[in-house]
Amino acid sequence: MLKYDSHQEFEGWEEFNTRPLGERLPLFSRNGRIFDILFSQQFDRAFLDVLYELTNRIRRIAKSREGTHWLHRLHSHQRAMLYFVQPSTRTFLSFQNACHILGFHTSEIRDPHTSSEIKGESPEDSIRTFSSYVDLIIMRHPEEGFAEKTAWVLNTSERPVPVINAGSGRDQHPTQALLDVYTLQRSFEDRGGIDGKVIAMVGDLKRGRTVRSLSYLMKNYDRVTLLYAAPPEFQIGDDIKQFLHTHGITFEERDSLDAVLEDADALYMTRIQDEHDVSGESQSHYERFSLKREHLHRMHPDAIIMHPLPRRGEIEVAIDKDPRAVYWRQERNGMWTRAALIATIFASEATIQTEGD
Ligand code: CP
To answer: With 0-12 CB in 10 A as exposed, 13-18 as middle and 19+ as buried, what is 95?
Structure first.
């Protein structure tokens, strides 16, 4: 019998949602394991270290045909639902392929107009319907907090299934942060790891959720300095700054890409999210927050350039050939990291670590 790791009683979602995160998190773990993946704040260093070892292991096993078939048998009796009602290319595809690597059968809804939501069914009832058929729900939704609400609804139903947040409004993208940190760790493997590094996040930091989730994860590493380079009106949120203060993480705000180029061990470029503009207010910022070939000589020779993608003009395409550009590798890392995460939720990590050769 699965048990919540919460000893508290909650009256309902409205009341639960007023509680501080520390009180809410236990509802999303069971038997000492994370059950729902909703926030970057759920992950500690021990969890990350085990996850990334498992990620490496799955990558290695999947190199051979026999290994691929072995992995595929692990969860071939289980099913996952991808509910992506906000646009996505790589998160959707990497989760779908991560599921397939582990043998999960997948089904999907990408457009609520093709579901019974169009007849007036609430998204909450739609989610309960998915849980009637599948063992895992992976969701991207435009509404902040909707993934958590879904997990609440299912955890208080008679058929709880794990929920993974694959992007929730402007709030969080925790699995992107997991793959970002995996990429940082691999890139700095021969340079002492992530500890002590300077990570510059550049672009629209107010409306981008990847930088928020990545910032939270930095509490797990020592002596990291975060440089936030953004136009003043699109700087990182006060809630993130408060979190960094609380966890003693050094950070600075700067107002241009130019101002962080020479200091960064990792330059994390992001897209200006002008889909949220009311009257084109971000257009004047594209140029000052775009990385061009002429900038490269000012960067450390062993710095890395990351981007959660998709990109537009913020990294010149010719930079793809520079050995410091790791964003295509970062993108592919998403599939392996997500496979390891799903294996962890379904407790197959010990089997993968000890068998499969
Ligand atoms: N990085 C990311 O979330 O990309 P998609 O929107 O294509 O999934």
So the answer is: buried
Closest C-alpha to ligand 1, atom 1: 308
What is the atom index within ligand 1 of the atom nearest the CA of 309?
A: 1
Tokens 């959660």, residue located: 308
pTM for this predicted structure: 0.95
Beta bridge partners of 106: 80
Q: What is the pLDDT of residues 150-182, one digit of tens each?
A: 999 999 888 999 999 999 988 999 999 999 999
Residue 99 Cα to ligand 1 middle (Å): 17
Residues of the chain with pLDDT > 90: what percent?
Answer: 82
**Cα 94 to averaged position of ligand 1 atoms, centre (Å):** 10
Active-site hit among 173, 197, 212, 285: 173
pLDDT band at 116 (very low <50, low <70, confident <90, very high): confident
